[in-house]
Amino acid sequence: MQKINDLFGKLVISQITGDQVASVSDIVLDQEVRRIVALIISGRASGEQVVRWPQILGVGEFVVVDGAQAFLAASDDSEIAELRAGAERITGKHIISASGEQVGTVSDMYFSRDGELVGFELRRGLFGGLDPQAIRAEDIQAVGRDAVIVSANESISMSALDSDTSTASDPGEPELSAPSISG
User: Fold this and answer.
1) What integer best gives the mean pLDDT of the chain?
2) Which run of H or of E encompasses 84?
């Protein structure tokens, strides 16, 4: 489980050549299935290019990609362009319970190795707390222009969220979720 905001600026390395091909400049989330569908990368000599999630072999200190085929220019991928056009910034939004209580604000989002969004990191108050808290993705009812609505006024510790994701399904089998989310 990793934080989405940590992806920005990561160097992208081709598995085929071992060369740095670019760095991550944007992340594209699918609103219907709550998952990362692509990274937008920018290189020294190239404009924005799309790396679809299945082309990503690993994410750690670097993003390792399958360099066997050329990446599509971001402007040439209509699906990605549409998702980006409808995207909104989620970090900083208020998290409000369905009963009307402010729970906190979104400070980051967590994703599994297959790109599925598994939770939102929660910040309470000005400085947050010592133990990072999270809201599970399944507890999120809506992500709107002004707020994130959650079904309960409860958060969980990050270690509990991490243990939930360690028993997740096979990364090759996407799990669909009903509420939409935009990045």
Assistant:
1) 83
2) helix 78-85
Residues 6 or more apart whose Cβ sits within 8 Å of residue 27: 4, 7, 8, 36, 38, 39, 40, 183
Question: Residues 104, 124: contact at Cβ < 8 Å?
Answer: yes
Give residues with Cβ within 8 angstroms of 130, minimum separation 6. none
Calculate the CA 57 to chain-centre distance.
16
Task: Write the CATH number for 74.
Answer: 2.30.30.240
Euclidean distance between CA atoms 55 and 142, whole angstroms: 29
In total, the chain counts a number of residues equal to: 183
Domain contains 171: no
Confirm whether 177 is domain-assigned. no
User: Is the whole-model pTM more than 0.85?
Assistant: no
Q: Let me know whether 62 and 104 are in one domain.
A: no
> What are the residue ranges in the chain where pLDDT is below 70?
31, 125-131, 153-183
